Amino acid sequence: MTRKVLVVDDDVALREMMAMTLKKEGHEVTAAAGATEARSLIGLTAFDLVVSDIYLGDGTAIDLLEDIRQASPETAVILVTAQGTVETAAAARDAGVFEYLAKPFQLEQLVECVTAALGTRPKSPTAPTKGPETMIIGSHPSIVEVYKAVARVAPLPIPILLQGETGTGKELVARALHRYGASTNGPFVAINCGAIPETLLESEVFGHRRGAFTGAVRDHLGAIQTARGGTLLLDEVGELPPLLQVKLLRFLQEGEIRPLGSESTITVQTRVIAATHRDLSEGVEAGGVREDFYYRLAAYQIEIPPLRARTSDIPLLIEYFAQRVRERLGRTDIGGVSSETLSVLRDYHWPGNVRELEHLVQRSLIDHGSMEDPHQVQTFLKTPRTSGPQIESGPSIGADLTLEALERLHIEAVLKKTDGNRTRTAEILGIERKSLYRKINRLEIPVPGDGVE
Questions:
Q1: Residue 171: strand, helix, or coil
Q2: Domain of 311?
Q3: Is the domain of 136 the same as that of 36?
Q4: N or C: which end of the chain has fewer CB within 10 A?
């Protein structure tokens, strides 16, 4: 059965490619170059499916959704974007959008998505809402998956575990979950379990009654009660000792707490989001994390990607941080970043992730007024660290070798270990594959074997 599909994108090459692909699948395809043209077509024809880029030259697909729903409520919608945000993902969810694809995508992905959308009746939409801007920046597919996860799970009253390296933005994701959750009008309270002495941690989380211990001269509301009706973020939750894991497990199961020194329990409605840079499943195996606590805490888990896995987002992040520096300092003379500097930053391993990049941008702009000179920027970068399995480095490494020579030796050793498999080598080094290709070319590193991709 022939289905009518409207493809909307201001990128002529991508628009024609998507249209051609869907025509080959037997669909009747109409193409539009922007929101205005799409509106006129929607008014004339009842389409079974609309595939649209979010950001068009004369508007956005989010605004276009209302026209689509008014013309034909049963029309399925797929949004594609190279500039995803939590806001657009949430608006897409609320408007009943079938899927939210991140560019670049494989045409096979598009075909599978279109086939599924045309075979599924879209859910009843609500009017899209525009929330305040978040500080989560990026359009790499891995971070777009985070946006989609936030939009999907934020309204659900279940605990969520955020897992990611230090500096990846776990608290920002937690705040986005709160903002788009059912308890958005309640308080957002965050505590760092690793920064509070173990002797005080129970009181800080669960509270205490006057006289519960020496120095307890008045009742104290713990974080769970302080966040009542809202969201509690337990950062570095892997640092909780076993006894507190048991008490928190009871709260997650029953919604009840017993403050220190109290003889009765209190029922509290607080949504818990936990965050950690550790792999808690490994903690379960090692015995430091209770298995029942882990599974209750991780009712839904979101992995936050490290910056080295989404280096294509670095220009967007730099511009955002640079604009914040301009506004904070009231300066208009702050310049931009050169392509040479971007190349250096894309090849860097980013142990401190987005937080390190923010510090780098601020320091560079304050000290030098721009990020044009890659050598000046390099002075602020940390000495590269290696991760993953230990690799035999072959020749002995002398203290007189340059950083570039050390890097070349290490990459050669990893390539040798993987028999030239560049995908596996990039995984071990903790960088994107295209970054590895640039390093191989720049450092003229021979690839052993067949150089498997």
A1: helix
A2: 307-378
A3: yes
A4: N
Domain boundary among 343, 358, 378: 378
Structure tokens at 34: 């922007």
Q: Pairing relation of β-strands 76-81 and 266-267?
A: unpaired
CB distance 96 to 77 below 8 Å: yes
Question: Which residue type, as a one-letter code, is found at position 33?
Answer: A
Take residue 159 and report the two structure tokens written for it. 């605990």
**Cα-based torsion angle of the residue sequence 418, 304, 133, 346 in order, rounded to the nearest 10 degrees:** -20
- Residues 315, 297 share a domain: no
State the distance between the two ends of the chain, measured CA to CA, in whole angstroms: 40
Ranges of the chain whose pLDDT falls below 50? 121-132, 384-397, 451
Q: CA–CA separation, 148 vs 146, rounded Å?
A: 5
For the segment 229-271, what is each residue's pLDDT rounded down to a tens digit? 999 999 999 889 888 999 999 999 999 999 999 888 999 999 9
In a domain, 149, yes or no: no
In angstroms, the Cα distances linking 311 to 118, 147, 357, 375, 388 are: 35, 17, 11, 19, 19
CATH number of the domain encompassing residue 218 = 3.40.50.300
* pLDDT value at residue 292: 92
Cα 142–Cα 143–Cα 144 angle in degrees, nearest 5: 90
